[in-house]
Amino acid sequence: MKCKTIISELADYLDEALDPILRASIEEHLGKCKDCRIVVDTCKQTIEIFCDSEPAPLPQTTRLRLHEALAKRLRRVRA
Amino acid sequence: MGSPKLDPVARRPLPSQVVKDDESALVAAAKAGDISAFETLVGRYERKIFRLTQNITQNREDAEDAMQEAFLKAFEHLQSFEGNSRFYTWLVRIAVNQALMKLRKRRPNVVSLDEEIDTGEDLVPREVEDWGPSPADRYAQTELSEILTKVIGELDPPFRIVFQLRDIEELSTEETADALGLSVPAVKSRLLRARLKLRQTLNQYFRLGENQ
Question: What residues contact B36, with CB distance under 8 A and at least 6 apart?
């Protein structure tokens, strides 16, 4: 298996969407190729860092405007 | 050498597949006219929806408008929500549409999301440096948040939006394809490029030796 194949299968590998045979040959390559190991690991960390990041609280003015707009619409529905 | 110590991404169950215990009850109550139930749903998701519209539009005013319109539309069309998907997934789809409309209005030349993209770029990474464990821990929360906002903003919209839905909002590949009107292979190909590009950009912040 070539390094290029690892990259083209990387997304499915990280998402555990590969068939077991392809997965096993990728892991065999990763056992021998340090560069590919680093790329896979740092790519995995990239996803986790974004995935774990908490959205910032809404700026106060933004929140106020959102809830005012909703209240206005809800009042109209009630009327 | 023995087998690698790499595990695939430790995926939690996709949020789109995990319904919070009270979500369907809140949706049912809101449908029946309970305004406070809808307000609870808004309060639960406003931060995530704002981050989503912000990351898509890259413009604070547009993001705010798109978020507002998304919640108003969700309220308006609540009766048509049949509960085949999670409420949040439905809301994300509405917000994505609103944000894309803003983006296209402001940047009419932006490449169409459903266009075939050929970047002609070699996918093999150029920079291969180790980050060590937990590189994000080297930054304070606000600083990290600024870095992530900056690097995702540098991605072209077709890649940024797929990454946003798939890896930040954690929609499934199929849900992402459905929300964007793309094929599953197109989502996969854009996701791969987005992940590699982000990895490469984050390398300057996280490589070992930079912040030790």
Answer: none
Compute the C-alpha angle A51/B198/B12, nearest 5°.
20
| B130 to A38: CB separation less than 8 angstroms, yes or no | yes
pLDDT value, residue A55: 87
Report ipTM for this prediction: 0.88
Tell me what pLDDT residue A44 has: 93
Do the beta carbons of residue B58 and residue B154 sit within 8 Å? no
The pair of three-digit structure tokens given for residue B149, joined into one six-digit string: 């906002």
**pTM recorded for the entire structure:** 0.84
Confidence check: pLDDT of B201 > 80: yes
Residue whose pair of structure tokens reads 């590189």 in the numeric block: B135
Rounded mean pLDDT of A11-33?
A: 92
| Contact list, B173 vs chain A (CB under 8 Å) | 15
Instruction: Pick the range with the lowest mean pLDDT from A37-46, A54-63, B19-28, B146-155.
Output: B19-28
Cβ B16 vs Cβ B170: under 8 Å: yes
Residue to test with chain B: of A25, A49, A75, most B Cβ within 10 A: A49
* Three-state secondary-structure class, residue B199: helix
Distance, in Å, from the CA atom of B209 to the CA atom of B212, rounded to the nearest integer, reads 5
Query: d(Cα B98, Cα B118) in Å, to the nearest integer?
Result: 27
| Three-state DSSP state, B112 | coil
